[in-house]
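Form 7-S
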Amino acid sequence: LSIERFATEDRDTTTFEAGLTRNVYAPWIRLKASVRDRIIIEAGARYEYAALEGDSEDGAIDGRDVHVPIVADAGLSYLPAETIKLSARYGRTFRYPALDEQVVYSGYGSDTFYDDLDPERGHSMVLGASYDNDMITASAAPFVIWMADEIVFDSAEFRNLNTGETIRYGATLDASYRYAVLTLGAGYDYVRAELAAGEHEGNIVPLVPAHSVTGEVRAELPLGFSVGSDARFTSSFYEGGDEANDLDMIPGRTEWGARLEWSGDFGLSTYLAARNLLDDRTPTRVYYGGWYPMPGRTYEIGARWEY
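Output:
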């Protein structure tokens, strides 16, 4: 990330220059074995070495920090019939500090590099059940994720610290129906995200909508054409920084799009897509009353060639 600040809007005079670099090396191994044709065992592990370096002409964000997370997971799948699959999986998970969490480069005398932040770490458990035949596909996956050392802004020290703990549990449901040239699909996600420690323990985690509903329809047309439409609704959420859940929730958002595709010979395909046809600009990110702008209606045309 290259950073430049200027004295005026015309950008003639540079007042600050800096750079941030993150290099990540991640060897991993994955094993999979079948037992009696109906039981599948999987396991994996990954070691990562991530080095973040900051450099600026005034020395304000000069610094270096290294994160070395090690994660692993294991899963078991059982196939009682050709159309049915049952599964269970456990894994360790982590998240690196984002650049703007570990480094302040907004100016006003606050520029600094935090070399004492650690990755967030946690545990995840997922159960799964799916059914799939020539016409119908359906799946359900309840889950729970517990995270510790979450990075939160400490208003007393006026900086980010590894002091947060959260627990998320819910389920993902998906289904689709295929008949002749028509495909219908629908999905529903539910997540209950709670603060698991601190002054606001038990409150809802800001920025996390509890409900998400999707729908899709697609039809194959003659001469290589296909047409489809999809919609997504996400429910309301608390804005960033409102761990007390005192403020009004940000309303839900509905996004509807459509797509026309054509596939020809020689691996060539083209498409015309329209997104957010309802022009719903309700933001998905709001921090301390500041709304990040969302695009209105957008249109896209493209082509792809595969060989």
